[in-house]
Amino acid sequence: MPIPKKIITYLKKNKIKFEQIAHKTVYTAFDLAKNAKKNLIASAKPWSLKTDKGYVLVILPADRMVDFGKIEKLLGAKKIEIAKEKVMKDVF
Which helix (H) or strand (E) is 30 found in, with range? Predict the structure, then answer.
């Protein structure tokens, strides 16, 4: 799946360096790193989350785990859950 134009526009507008790498469909960050012949720490994984304050997209280094408690505290949210795939497509 290509990076949505909205995200590319945001990255460019904010002068955030990124590299888009074409690869076959994968389901884990480990498989992505292996397929793209990249170090796991050099890869990123997106998490689409639904909070009581709205939807957020969290990008983490692929070798890290999501700490929902920290995200709740950072956002001042009371509830966080992983967004459904259809919502991810529509929102992001």
Answer: helix 29-35
What's the pLDDT tens digit per position in 18-77? 877 777 787 787 787 777 777 776 677 788 899 998 999 888 888 888 899 999 999 999
pLDDT tier, 1 (very low <50, low <70, confident <90, very high otherwise): low
* CA gap 92, 54 in Å, rounded: 12
Alpha carbon 17 to chain centroid, angstroms: 15
pTM: predicted TM-score of the whole model, two decimal places: 0.61
- Contact of 30 with 43, CB cutoff 8 Å: no
What is the total residue count of the chain? 92
In this structure, are residues 43 and 33 in contact, taking their beta carbons and an 8 Å threshold? yes
| Cβ contact 7:44 at 8 Å | no
Structure tokens at 87: 């919502």
